[in-house]
Amino acid sequence: MKSFLKILVIALLLFLSYFAAINIKNRYVWDKETQSITFLLDIDENVYEQVNKEEFFNRIFELGIKSIILNWDERFIDNFNFLSQKGFNIGIKVIPDKNYDFKLIESFIRKNRDKIFTVLVEPINYKISNSRIINIGTNFLLPKIGDLVRKNDLICLNFEFNKETLGKVAKIKQNVARTFVLDTNLLDKDYLLKVRKAIKERSCKVIYIVTSEFLSLEEKSDIIRNVVLQNKNVFSQEFNFKKYSTINFGKIYKITNIIVFFLHMVGLIFCYKYFTKKIKIKEINFFAINFVNIFIGILSYGLLQSYDYVVLNENISGIKFMFLLPIIILSLTIFELKDLKIILNYNLKIKDLIISFFAFLGIYYIVIRMGNISRDLVLSYELMFRNFIENIILFRPRFKEVFFGQPILVFALFLLKKAPKNIFGKMFLWLSVIGQVSILNTFLHVHTPIHINILRTITGMLIGLVLGKFLIVLYKQIILFFRKTL
After folding, report:
1. Among the four given CATH numbers 3.10.129.10, 3.30.590.20, 3.20.20.370, 2.60.40.1940, the one describing domain 36-230
2. What is the signed CA dihedral for 123, 126, 128, 131, rounded to 10 degrees?
3. What DSSP designation does 378 have?
4. Cα(317)–Cα(384) distance, rounded to whole angstroms?
5. What single-letter DSSP state applies at residue 123?
6. What is the rounded end-to-end Cα distance, in angstroms, of the chain?
7. How many whole angstroms separate alpha carbon 297 and alpha carbon 274?
């Protein structure tokens, strides 16, 4: 019976691996063929009043940017005529808190279709804006704008940090571009790095630059020039909309998500039961656990590959569920009933309460750090480490792995090697599950190219191994100190 089950599991893994490999290959080809990006310039209405239009747009044209976004207002016609005569293509922008005559807009588009390339709702970064009026206005306008885009075969810009994107709301799947907004009103010193990450890490094909009325002509020109020159090797004036096909079961009751969750659970249970039974060389067990989960992560990435997820900004349902439930279930695998009795009968001391308090703070910080959160919730030391790593190799290992899960896994294996039934070793082993679940979640970022997910994970694993070794040395020194003093 066991032999049959083994054969069945291997056959199932080979079956899923085949489909995942096809999807990853298709995605890799798509990444290679759609490396080019396009820059758009959103001209704030106040900017026109500040700059010498002739000089400013001559500079923009010389940089190769030929696509300009204009507000639909009383000055639109004059601005449109001026820019279209200079050879620019024009996009129409509407504002969430204003009323519009959409018949008039559609009539203008049809008359000037050769010069109009898109119509859009002003992009709102929901990490910054919490305005209910703007949210309602955006949700009201998106279907109407979607109709204009579809009827006139215009380009659909999907802004990556908008809760609701045009492509998703209007169900547009042709001529769609994942778009990153660079707002020069909110610029910081890392803006060039952010653009690079949007292109390389998040597969954005359009960089949408919002000009600021608070910057001088020279400052505006310098920012735009810096962004264009940094990415001149992939810059194109033509939009790239090539689609790619995948074998995906997600349309049938989200079966793919269920398969992926099942793979995660089975893989984690297997790792934490099989590779923690006998620990002769803890480093081998450490690498075995990590590489099994990296394999499952790659498998999940391939199975979940979908044009809808990557370009249309569709959400993968159940992400937080996939993070929390394995941690709960693994507690039943790692601990035995007698371990619970030991914990309940343990005589708590003041030092134990202090350690528990700091452990609780650490776990709480890990939980609130789940997903994409505001930089305000990230410690300044972590931000410094992030920027240091990203400026060198662009991608960075995830906090939950490099500073928490991986070092704790190394330390837990060290304790369990000495005493396999050690309750503290088991507790650290259970906490280390957070790092392994984080690895699996890394590969759920299906919009990120596969090689970046792999390199990010391996970097985190190796740095975490070093930090874990340091933790063991520190532990030995503390024990030695107490033995000498006592």
Report:
1. 3.20.20.370
2. 90
3. S
4. 32
5. P
6. 56
7. 19
Residue-wise pLDDT for 405-437, tens only, equals 999 999 999 988 888 887 888 888 998 999 999
List of E strands, 43-195: 67-71, 89-94, 116-121, 156-159, 176-183
Tokens of 454: 């792999």
Could you tell me whether strands 156-159 and 89-94 are parallel, antiparallel, or unpaired per DSSP bridges? unpaired
Q: How far apart are the C-alpha atoms of 469 and 242, rounded to whole Å?
A: 47
Phi, psi of 347 (to 5 degrees): -85, 105
Single out the residue of 221, 150, 169, 231 nearest to residue 394, CA to CA: 231
CA distances from 446 to 85, 204, 243, 302, 441 (A): 42, 13, 15, 8, 10
The pLDDT score that the predictor gives to residue 207 is 92
> How high is the mean pLDDT in each 10-residue block of the chain (486 residues)?
80 91 91 87 70 79 89 89 91 86 91 91 59 53 85 87 66 81 80 87 89 78 87 84 72 72 90 82 89 95 84 70 81 80 67 59 62 56 67 75 90 87 85 91 90 92 93 84 70
State residue 24's pLDDT score.
93
125 vs 123: CA distance, rounded Å: 7
Could you please report the per-residue DSSP string of 315-375?
Answer: PPTTHHHHHHHHHHHHHHHH--HHHHHHHHH----HHHHHHHHHHHHHHHHHHHTSSS--G
Strands 176-183 and 156-159: parallel
DSSP 249: -
Where along the chain do the CATH 3.20.20.370 domains lie? Answer: 36-230
DSSP codes joined into one string, 172-216: --SSEEEEEEEEGGG--TTHHHHHHHHHHTS---EEEEEP-TTS-
CA distance 283 to 237: 51
Residue type, 69: I
Q: Which residues pair with 177 in a beta bridge?
A: 157
How far apart, in whole angstroms, are the C-alpha atoms of residue 399 and residue 369? 9
What's the residue count for the chain? 486
